[in-house]
Amino acid sequence: MEYQKPTMEQRAEIITQALPYIQKYYNKIVVVKYGGNAMINDELKEAVMGDIVLLSLIGVKVVLVHGGGPEINEMLGKIGKKSEFISGLRVTDKETMEIVQMVLAGKVNKNLVNLLQGKGGKAVGLCGVDGHMIKAKAVDERLGYAGEITDVNVAPIHDLLEKGYIPVISTIGCDADGHTYNINADTAASRIAGELKAESLVSMTDIVGLCRDKDDPSTLITKVHVSDAPKLILDGIISGGMIPKVNCCIEAIRRGVHKVFVIDGRIPHAILIEVLTDAGIGTMFVS
Q1: First to last CA, the chain
Q2: Of 17, 79, 102, 121, which sees the most CB atoms within 10 A?
Q3: Which residue blocks in the chain are alpha helix, DSSP H?
Q4: How many Å apart are CA 258 and CA 30, to the nearest integer?
Q5: What is the pLDDT at residue 1?
Q6: Exposure of 20 in the CB half-sphere (CA atoms within 13 A)
Q7: Among candidates 201, 180, 202, which has minimal Cα distance to 265?
Q8: d(C-alpha 152, C-alpha 136), whole Å
Q9: CA 169, CA 96: separation in Å to the nearest integer?
């Protein structure tokens, strides 16, 4: 069947339907956790950056928190260093931490800032070390400089939002002695969203959302109450790598975020579909 472009009337109808959502999110904070395939596919990356700029231009205060696992793996491979993980967290010795900081706070962060500005947005790159924004300590001595968050100072983020900028944050933390730590991006986005009392946290992933059968997208669970999560874990519906991701969603809700969305970052304009339409495409977590 040949694709039919929407008529001007249909396009106008789409914009009209978005109006109540634009009003709802106007001047509210939305934190977007960005990673996965949406980050390594150039076409998707362009679409995501365009969506974020659009949200910013209609008055949504967007905070972009990013990881960069594939880029870190690529750089470690170039120096002949193998990536190792324990319970989903990267084993981060001193040399690896230097690479992580170089890739996340340098290459990835500044590329995203550049893309946002190329789309007409105003963006400023930050890493958790700036202004001691993300304070951290070691998670486990076996993991080296993999860190857990002890405190978050969101004042620099508020300062940028008030001036109309999109803060782009790489997830590196530090302690009082100047040691830097690699922070899991889901954990960082959850904590930052909670401290900002964000309206929503949007977590972009490589799956359609939470499904009753992980191999069947048609079993997508569109809404999950925080109180339902323990039973979903007990029933095996939330399992493996989804457990820490869901725990981050729950933590954000408990810290004051109104809604958390887990959406498929492989779908073009997934953020706009989730935030500005009735349809929604992922799993929504609420209190």
Answers
A1: 43
A2: 121
A3: 8-25, 37-40, 42-57, 69-78, 94-101, 109-118, 155-162, 185-196, 229-234, 242-254, 270-276
A4: 10
A5: 39
A6: 4
A7: 202
A8: 9
A9: 20
Q: How confident is the model over 231-271, as pLDDT tens digits?
A: 998 888 888 778 888 999 999 999 999 999 999 988 888 89
Provide the token pair at 248.
């981050």
C-alpha to C-alpha distance for 236 and 238, rounded to whole angstroms: 5
State yes or no: pLDDT of 4 exceeds 80: no
Q: What pLDDT, in 10s, does the model give residues 208-231? A: 888 888 888 889 999 999 999 889
The percentage of the chain sitting over the pLDDT mark of 90, rounded to a whole number, equals 61
Helices within 163-236 (DSSP H only): 185-196, 229-234
DSSP-H helix ranges across 136-177: 155-162
Torsion angle in degrees (nearest 10) through CA of 42, 55, 192, 285: -90
Beta-bridged to residue 166, according to DSSP, are 123
- Report CA torsion sign: 123, 129, 135, 138: positive
Residue that the structure tokens 């933590």 belong to: 251
Of 205, 186, 208, 207, give the one whose Cα is nearest residue 252: 186
Q: What is the pLDDT of residues 88-101, one digit of tens each?
A: 788 899 999 999 99
Q: Judge whether residue 3 has pLDDT over 60.
A: no
CA–CA separation, 50 and 85 (whole Å): 33
Contacting residues for 75 by C-beta, under 8 A, at least 6 apart: 99, 102, 103
Instruction: Judge contact between 199 and 29, C-beta under 8 A.
Output: yes
CB 145 within 8 A of CB 92: yes
Give the residue carrying structure tokens 């004042």: 155
